[in-house]
Amino acid sequence: SPSNLQMGESSMLERANCRAKGGAPGFKVAILGAAGGIGQPLAMLMKMNPLVSVLHLYDVVNSPGVTADISHMDTGAVVSAGFLGQKELEAALTGMDLVVIPAGVPRKPGMTRDDLFNINAGIVRTLCEGIAKCCPNALVNLISNPVNSTVPIAAEVFKKAGIYDPKKLLGVTMLDVVRANTFVAEVLGLDPREVDVPVVGGHAGVTILPLLSQVKPPCSFTPEETEFLTKHIQDGGTEVVQAKAGAGSATLSMAYAAVKFADLCLRGLRGDAGIVACAYVDSKVTELPFFASKVRLGRGGAEEVYQLGPLNEYERIGLEKAKQELATSIQKGVSFIKK
Ligand code: NAD
Ligand code: LMR
Questions:
Q1: CB within 6 Å of ligand 1 — which residues?
Q2: pTM across the whole model
Q3: 298: CA distance to ligand 1 center in Å?
Q4: pLDDT tens, 115-164?
Q5: How far apart are CA 81 and CA 84, in angstroms?
Q6: Which of 30, 141, 222, 335 has its CA 20 to 30 A from that of 282?
């Protein structure tokens, strides 16, 4: 019966809470937009993450179904009642350590990420108002596009609420790194797991700036290879949008990248040393207020934002182009809240 289900659920939740309190590495994670193309595989992969003790799945449609399905997986994380619609947003967010946001519309062929602004800006604002109210200390992993503008929107919402901690707001650019590692490994004939490519700037077109001069293991590329790889990495999202031909954008590789990034955030929260990843954050690395670069993740979030390191001529030209577009996208996000 429903009441038995509820009792079972609450005692399971108590046990999960006990595990977390007893020093076991258990964090409470909410996914907002959990029934979507990214949200569903992301929820599945988070349910498999041993650092997660409680998983809240929120969406404006179908979250009870996704929750019921995922809750049958015999892994440690407890998935409690599906959180459906605005009236359940606060319950979904209360007590969370990490909030991952893949809510919003994806691109169709012919669109830029900025074309999503009109719909997604309002969605991100509402969700971030909920975070400010219910879990102001949570780490936020923002996936909704256009990331270059939605992160500044989130920051302005948090500033307005008086709870902005720049270290806790992270725009997710891990998919660019995942793509860069894959494409560079193909060219070098290496296993992608051995390759590490820093990708800086932002998350759209020319703002995606792979630093091929800093690839690990150390290697060199011909000018043709550099041009090919840079374009392939910058256009990776568009290539998927075109291949899906109207059915959306990257979802599975994004869910993989989001979980890879969320896992690093949770390891940082746990206090592991030396956790470094690229993310789009509040930054003093350039004159722009937000910029993606390597950050060190710790108990407080992005505790250190690293400088870009030496760039070659090709990358210096790319950086100037990236900054121009980024400045416009950041301003657009800021004025959406300030207007
Ligand atoms: P989708 O349409 O399949 O799923 C989006 C989900 O968000 C849907 O389930 C929808 O109901 C939900 N949603 C809509 N409004 C909401 C609200 N107010 N509150 C909560 N949930 C709401 O789209 P998708 O393919 O999962 O993509 C989601 C977003 O992620 C898009 O904006 C896309 O551009 C972006 N994206 C970003 C990256 C990145 O690298 N940062 C990569 C891929 C996609
Ligand atoms: C991506 O890089 O795959 C996402 O930003 C989705 C998109 O619209 O390209």
A1: 32-33, 35-39, 59-61, 102-107, 116, 120, 123, 126-127, 143-145, 147, 172, 175, 203, 248-251, 254
A2: 0.95
A3: 27
A4: 999 999 999 999 999 999 999 999 999 999 999 999 999 999 999 999 99
A5: 9
A6: 30
